[in-house]
Specification:
- α1 crosses α2.
- Helices cover 39% and strands 23% of the residues.
- By secondary structure, it is an alpha+beta fold.
- β1, α2 and β2 form a beta-alpha-beta unit.
- The protein is elongated, with a radius of gyration of 14 Å.
Length: 99
Amino acid sequence: SEPVLNTLGEALRRDEYKGRTFVFAGHTDAKGGADYNQSLSERRAEAVKRYLMDLGVPASRLRTLSLGEARPAVPGVGDAAWGRNRRAELSLATQQASR
């Protein structure tokens, strides 16, 4: 995922995105217990945030959300479904960050 995150970090530092806040939602597959998956999804979202901060994106513009296994990208069981459900998704926050 590093090439994708490097490109994203470059984009988020552009002038057109200054003052905007982005949310990274961490997700997991359905394996493991609910508490474990909630914690794992939080760590996943925080890892993306830290990586982008290391690339120079201000922490004040990055938020995280942990959703665990609650919103699978694809239904089903097995490696193909589980692999697609282990992810972090980016969205633009509805409010702008304070400057």
